[in-house]
Specification:
The chain has 331 residues and is an all-alpha fold. The chain has a domain of 180 residues. 81% of the residues lie in helices and 0% in strands. The protein contains ten helices and no strands. The protein is rod-shaped. About 15% of the residues have low confidence.
């Protein structure tokens, strides 16, 4: 009976061990191929029961291949590897933002140093033009009114002394002409040749008229220079700015107009300022030429009036001298 029980226990032990080995073989995972292996067909191998150490190492081997793609995805592509289309898109967006904020002041600030110097010079020339315009308008209106009133006052005068008394101490070109006539008559006292006295007086009148013409035309040469040169100075700034714009095109490697539009606008601003300085200068110069011509005609009238008064004084002197000589002879 004891032997029977011992045989039964041994049989149960063998059966239990066999069932455990069968269960472990069913639960063991199938072996996974390595990620970088040759494509040769795998040979059949007999199943091997995995040990606990192999079972612990298998999860680490399965997780290692999945980490490499994540690392590759996490590394972003550098900006230098962007395509030309992407670069052009970024340039277009930047140019569009700049065009929305474009104004004359921003164009001046973003312009080249030489273009800025041209713009500042043209703005100063425009300021000079309007300063001359205001000053000459005030000056011409004052001297025209004074000369017109002086001619009206000496219209009924019979001699140089009477004309000077009528004018008083007011400074005008007519006062200078009368003073020159009286000085010549005083210096020529005792000379019987009236023709020589009138000729010398006319020479003095011509000098006074030329001096007045030079004085009244002061500043006209500046207007003529500004009107003639400002468009070309502005064009020089425009050519320089457009040249810089083409250099920017070559650097940006794009021919899109939106990218180079700000540079071209800055260049054209120089031409616009040149025209703003030149057009008023030409118009003001032509206006003052007409006004000056009218004033010089009034000066010529004043010179003729002074010559007539001198001629009357000379004739009156001869008449009075002849009457005095006849009276002396009669006595």
């Amino acid at each position: 009976m004891f032997r029977t029980i011992l045989k039964l226990v041994l049989a149960l032990t063998i059966v239990s061990q066999a069932s455990v080995a069968t269960a472990q073989q069913k639960m063991a995972p199938a072996p996974q191929p390595a990620p970088a292996v040759s494509q040769a067909p795998a040979t059949a191998q007999p199943p091997i029961a995995p040990t606990p150490t192999a079972q612990a190492a298998q999860p680490a081997q399965t997780t290692q291949p999945t980490q490499a793609p994540s690392a590759a995805v996490a590394s972003p592509a550098p900006d230098a590897a962007a395509t030309p289309a992407e670069r052009e898109g970024r340039l277009l967006k930047a140019a569009a933002a700049e065009l929305r904020e474009l104004s004359p002041w921003l164009m001046f600030k973003n312009a080249d140093v030489l273009v800025k110097a041209v713009m500042i010079g043209l703005a100063f020339a425009s300021l000079v033009t309007w300063t001359i315009f205001i000053a000459k308008m005030i000056e011409l209106s004052i001297i025209q009114r004074k000369l017109r009133n002086a001619l009206a006052k000496i219209g009924d005068a019979r001699s140089l002394a009477e004309a000077q008394f009528a004018l008083g101490a007011k400074g005008s070109v007519l006062s200078s002409l009368l003073a020159a006539a009286m000085r010549e008559a005083r210096l020529s006292a005792g000379i019987s040749s009236d023709g020589g006295i009138k000729e010398r007086a006319a020479s003095s009148f011509a000098e006074i008229v030329r001096a007045e013409a030079r004085r009244i035309r002061l500043g006209m040469g500046m207007l003529a220079t500004i009107g003639a040169t400002s468009p070309f100075v502005g064009l020089f700034g425009t050519v320089w700015g457009i040249m810089n714009s083409f250099i920017g095109i070559s650097k940006a490697q794009t021919t899109n107009l939106a990218v180079v539009a700000p540079g071209i606008a800055e260049a054209l601003l120089a031409t616009a300022i040149g025209l703003v300085a030149a057009i008023p200068a030409v118009i003001i110069y032509n206006h003052f030429t007409r006004v000056t011509k009218g004033y010089m005609e009034m000066v010529s009238r004043a010179s003729g009036a002074a010559g007539r008064l001198l001629s009357r004084d000379l004739d009156r002197t001869h008449v009075s001298g002849g009457q005095h000589s006849r009276a002396t002879a009669a006595e």
